[in-house]
Protein: Prolyl oligopeptidase family protein
Amino acid sequence: MPSRLKTLFVCAIVSLLVCETKAVFADGERDNDSTQVRRIPKEGVEIPDDVRAELTESLQHLEKQINELRTKKDEQVSSLLPDVEIFHRAVRVAIEYNEFFDQKEFSVAKALVATGSERAQQLSEGKSPWTRQTGLVVRGYRSRIDDTVQPYGLLIPDGYNFDDTREYRCDLWFHGRGETLSEVNFINQRMKYGSYVTPENTIVLHPYGRYSNAFKFAGEVDVLEALESTQERYRINEDLIASRGFSMGGAAAWQFAVHYPDRWFAANPGAGFSETPEFLKFFQKEKLNPNEQERALWHLYDCTDYAVNLKACPTIAYSGELDIQKQAADVMETALAKENIRLMHIIGPETKHSIHVDSRTIIEQKLNELAKFGRPFLPRRLEFVTYTLKYNKMHWITLNGLQKHWTEARIKAETRGNEVIATTKNIRDLTFEFPAGSYRFEMDQPITVNIDGQTLELPGPMSDLSWKTRLQLKNDQWVVAETEVELQAGAKAASLRKQHDLQGPIDDAFMDSFVVVTPTGTSPHSHVQEWSASEQEHAIVHWRRHFRGDAQVVSDAELTDEQIVASNLILFGDPASNKVLARISDQLPIQWTPEAISVGSKKYDASHHALILIYPNPLNPQKYVVLNSGFTFREYDYLNNARQVPKLPDWAIIDLNTPADSRAPGKVVDLDFFDESWQLAPAE
Structure:
C-alpha cells in the first residue's frame, strides 16, 4: 500500500472509530422514555459575534460569486456549480440553525468557505481542477426531491487515468451513525480523513445520506442520486459496484443488497441492524406494541423478509465476536438458512464494535475474487421476493401489480431454451424482458411461457434477440396484456391501481419531488386550523433537521400547473381553508365536510378530527397528494435508526383533543391501507 494511502487508512480508522464509539452511547434503554426525548441533533455551541461576522461576510462573498456563475448560462458551469454550492449551504445552515457542535468547527467552516470561493474563482476562469483530482474529493449534486445541493465524498485511486476509456470498480461505503454529522462535519471528514476501505484501483463513494437516518427514505434516494452523479462524472463499471458499510452503514448495506440485488457484484454489511422488531427488543430493550398497520410496514425495510433476494447478490457479512450488533448478521443467517443459503459470516475474534485487522484482509480478498467475475448479466434462474411495488425489479423480471400489498409476493422463474418457467405468489401483473443479445433464444421459434401450471405460446424474439412480454392475471388466468398504447388509452377509463412509485404509504411521497401547499383560507374549526398549522411547521422544520433539506413551500393561491405536473403535493388544512384541497376533495375516497369526516359508514366529528392521507393526485394521477403530514416517524424515533420506519399507512383519522407529541400527531382513532385500486379496503 502506498505511504499516502497508509496515512489515509489510519486516519479513516480513527475517524470511524470515534464516530462509532459515539454511536454506541447515543442510544440505549435511557432513550425508551417518549416523554423525555433529547433533541437530535443537539443544540450547537454559541457562535462568538466576531466569528459570526467573519463567516457571514465570507458567505456573502461566496454567494456573489455563485450568482455571477449562474448568469453565465454555460452548461459546463451549471453542471459543476453544485460542487461550489455545497460549501456555501453547509456553512449557511450551520449558522442559521445553530449547528456548530464544537468551537473547533468554526475554523473548519472558514476553511470550507475558502475552498468554495477558490472553486468558484477557478470555475469563473473556465477551470475545474478538482474534477481531475485523485485521492480525496468532495462533490455535490442537486437533488430532485427538494432542489437542494447535497454533498458526497470520493476516493479516486492514484492510478485513475482521466484520459483513457478504462472503467473502474466502485465501492459504496455507508458511514456509521453520527448525531453531529452536519454538512460541515461530513464535508470536512471527506476532505481530510480518507476512506475506511481502499481497494486497489477502486473508486470509493461515500454518500452523505442526508444525515443520520440509516440511508432510508430520502437518505436512500441520496445514495442513488450520488451514485448516478458519480457515474456521470467518472468511468464506473456497472458490473463492479459493491454495497458496503459498518454499524449504521452496515444496516444500509443490508438494505441496499436485498432491495436492489441486481445492481451489485457483492455486498459487505458489518454490524448495524437488519430489521426492526428483534433488534429493538435485543439492543434497545424496548417493549414494542405496534398496531396491525405499523407491523405490516416493518416489511418495507426488514431485510430478513427479503433474504432470498441475496441469491442474486453475493454477500460477505462481518461482525465482531463481542459486538452486540452481531445480532444483525445472526438474524440474517437464520433467515437465509430458511432459503437454503449459507451466509458467509466473517467474525473478528475477541472484537467489539470495530473491524478486526485480520478480518479486513479476508474480506478484501474475497471481494477481489468476486470482482474478477463481476455482476452476473442476466441469470437464467431467479427467485425474487417483495412486499411492495416500491421494490419491484430483479434482472429480467419486473412486477407491475400485486394482489395485496404488505403480504409476501414471490416469483421463481428460469429459462430453458425457448421456454420460460415461473411460479408466482400474490402477483397479478408482471413483465419478462430480455435486452438485445442478453439471452440466446432461438430466433425462428416461438417462446413458451409456463406460469403457475398454465402454458402460453408467444411470438419468438426480435431479430436482435430482444424479447419482452407483459402478463396479467384475469379471472385466475394469465393473459398477455394489451400493448402499451392500448394500456395508456384505456387508463383514463380504468380504475386506479397501485403501481411502482405510486403505491404508498405516506412516507413514499417524500422520496421524490414534493411541494408543501399552505392554506390561505380559514377552517370553520379553530382546533383544526391550529393543528394543521402546527403540523405544517413541524413537517418543514423536521424535514430540514432530519433529512437536511429545504422544503419547497407555496400557498394554495400560488401553486402552478408546472408544480402539479412535476411534484407530489403536500396539502395542509381542510377543504374550507385550502383551495387545492377544495378542488379535489370530492374525488377522494374519504369525504371531509364541515360537519364530518366520512370513512365509508363511519363518521368523525369534523370539529376535533382531521384527516391524514396519501392518494394519487386527481389533478395529476402520476403524482401523489398528501394531506396534513410530513414523514410519519417523529422525534422519539430519531433516537434509534431501527425505529425509523413508517408509522402511518395510507390514511389515518386524528382526534385533535389529544395533543401531538414525540410519537404521533395526535390520537390515531382509525387508520388503514387503501386496497390495490386505491379505494377503502372492505371491512373484514
Summary: The chain has four domains: 3-34+134-373, 39-132, 406-491, 506-672. Residues 181 and 211 are 6 Å apart (CA to CA). Residues 3-34+134-373 form a domain with the Rossmann fold fold (CATH 3.40.50.1820). The radius of gyration is 26 Å.
